[in-house]
Amino acid sequence: MSKCRTVKRRNHGRSKKGRGHVKFIRCDNCFRSCPKDKAIKRFNVRNMIEAAAKRDMAEASVYESYDVPKVYYKQQHCIACAIHNRIVRVRSRVNRRNRAPPSRFRKEFKKPTGAPTAAVKASA
Predict the structure, then answer these.
(1) 48: Cα separation from own chain's centroid
(2) Which of 25, 56, 82, 105 could tie 77 with a disulfide, CB 3.0–4.6 Å?
(3) Residue 60 β-bridge partners
(4) Could you tell me which of 17, 35, 30 has the C-alpha nearest to residue 83?
(5) Which residues partner with 45 through β-bridges?
């Protein structure tokens, strides 16, 4: 006799699939033990020097142009810390079905529109 149990998520909150066991990792924030496939992972790329000190370093530097090295760091959080730090958000039952990645934010550059047309009209 099998009873049908309600399932909140299709993957049960993990990406394990065929594996029987996965290694545990420690949360970067609270040091809680969490399965590696269940942890929320983000790859963080930051400049080694913040923007305010970057200008001071450029003025004091001997070299004309020097690229400041970046820090590459992989963050791994347990679910509780990821929700608390707003890395992931709680979604409604309908929106939980959406498996598409969130849209990426990119800055758009505006092209100057007024100057070329005015020059053409003045020459005509």
Answers:
(1) 18
(2) 82
(3) none
(4) 30
(5) 72
